[in-house]
C-alpha cells in the first residue's frame, strides 16, 4: 500500500470521527452565549421601533395614559381632603435661604437616574400640556416652599409619563420623564430647586399600587408601570434640608 493511500484513509477516518462526535461542549456554550447577547441587543435596540409601532396602532395611548395619571390625582385629592389633615396656608420655609447662584423657576434633579428637568405647572383641567413637556406638579397639593407634610402641610406630588410621546427622543425621555423611576432605591437623593432655594429629599420607600398609601411623606412621585395598567409606581421621600 502506497504512502498516499494510507494517508488518505487516515484523513477520512479522522473526519468521520469528528462528524460523528459533533461540536464540542465548549463550542456550544460559546455559541449559546453569542445568541443570548445578540437577542438582548436586538431587544434593547428595538424599543423605539416597538414603541412607535404600538403608538401607531393605538394612537390615543398617550391620551389614555395622561387620563390615568389625572384620575390618580383626582383620587388623591378626594382621599386627602377626606382622610388627612386639612391643608394649611403656604408658609415659606425660612430655614432654607435663597441662593442667587441658583436659577429662578422650578427644577427637579435626580442624579441616580439622570433626571434633570423643569417642573411644569398645570391645573387638573390642563394637565396634559404639562405632561407633554415632562414632570407635572399635581395642583391642589403642596410646593416645597410650604410647610412640610410632617408639620401639617401638604405633600409635594409630582407625576410624569414613563414612555412619553412619539416626538420624544430617548435622550429627552431619560432626562425629562419618569422612565427610570422604578430604578430608584431607598436612600437616593432627590433635589428640587424652587425659586432659588434648594430642597433636598431622601427616598424612603418605593411601592407599586393603585393609590397613595402615605400622605405624610414630604415628596411623592408617581408614574404608570406599564402602557396599559392601573398599577402605578409610587416613590415616597422625606425632606432632609
Q: What can you tell me about this protein's structure?
A:
It is a single chain. This protein has helices spanning 3-21, 25-45, 47-57, 61-83, 127-133, 170-176, and strands spanning 106-110, 115-120, 135-137, 156-159, 189-194, 197-209, 219-224, 232-239. The chain has two domains: 3-44, no CATH class; 61-239, Sortase, Chain: A. The chain is α+β, with helices and mostly antiparallel strands. Residues 52-62 and 82-94 have low confidence and may be disordered.
End-to-end CA span: 94 Å
CATH class of the largest domain: Mainly Beta
SSE order in H/E notation? HHHHEEHEEHEEEE
Q: What is the overall shape?
A: elongated
Mean of the pLDDT scores? 74
SS element count, helices: 6
> Proportion of β residues?
15-25%
SSE-based structural type: alpha+beta
How many structural units, i.e. domains?
Answer: 2
The CATH superfamily of the largest domain is: Sortase
Largest sheet: 8 strands, mixed, barrel
Looking at the structure, the CATH topology of the largest domain is Sortase, Chain: A
Ordered list of secondary-structure elements with their pairings:
Blueprint: H1 3-21, H2 25-45, H3 47-57, H4 61-83, E1 106-110, E2 115-120, H5 127-133, E3 135-137, E4 156-159, H6 170-176, E5 189-194, E6 197-209, E7 219-224, E8 232-239
Parallel strand pairs: 2-3, 4-7
Antiparallel strand pairs: 1-2, 1-5, 3-4, 5-6, 6-8, 7-8
Annotation keywords:
alpha+beta, about 240 residues, 8 strands, 2 domains, about 20% strand, about 35% helix, Sortase, Chain: A, eight-stranded mixed β-barrel, 6 helices
Short recap of the structure:
With 241 residues, this protein is of the alpha+beta class. The protein contains six helices and eight strands.
Amino acid at each position: 500500500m502506497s504512502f498516499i493511500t494510507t494517508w488518505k484513509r487516515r484523513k477520512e477516518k479522522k473526519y468521520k470521527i469528528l462528524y460523528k462526535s459533533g461540536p464540542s461542549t465548549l463550542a456550544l456554550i460559546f455559541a449559546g452565549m453569542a445568541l443570548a447577547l445578540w437577542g438582548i441587543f436586538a431587544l434593547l435596540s428595538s424599543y423605539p421601533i416597538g414603541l412607535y409601532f404600538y403608538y401607531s396602532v393605538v394612537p390615543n395611548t398617550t391620551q389614555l395614559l395622561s387620563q390615568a395619571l389625572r384620575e390618580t390625582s383626582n383620587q388623591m385629592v378626594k382621599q386627602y381632603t377626606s382622610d388627612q389633615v386639612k391643608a394649611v396656608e403656604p408658609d415659606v420655609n425660612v430655614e432654607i435661604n435663597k441662593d442667587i447662584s441658583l436659577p429662578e423657576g422650578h427644577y427637579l434633579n435626580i442624579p441616580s437616574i439622570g433626571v434633570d428637568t423643569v417642573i411644569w405647572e398645570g391645573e387638573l383641567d390642563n394637565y396634559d400640556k404639562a405632561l407633554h413637556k415632562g414632570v407635572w406638579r399635581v395642583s391642589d397639593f403642596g410646593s416645597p416652599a410650604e410647610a412640610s407634610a410632617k408639620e401639617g402641610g401638604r405633600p409635594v406630588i409630582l407625576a410624569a409619563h414613563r414612555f412619553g410621546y412619539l416626538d420624544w427622543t430617548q435622550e429627552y425621555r431619560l432626562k425629562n420623564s419618569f422612565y427610570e423611576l422604578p430604578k430608584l432605591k431607598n436612600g437616593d437623593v432627590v433635589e428640587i430647586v424652587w425659586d432659588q432655594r434648594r430642597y433636598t429629599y431622601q427616598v424612603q420607600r418605593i411601592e407599586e399600587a393603585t393609590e397613595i398609601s402615605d400622605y405624610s411623606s414630604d415628596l411623592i412621585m408617581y408614574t404608570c408601570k406599564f402602557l396599559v395598567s392601573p398599577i402605578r409606581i409610587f416613590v415616597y421621600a422625606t425632606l432632609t434640608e
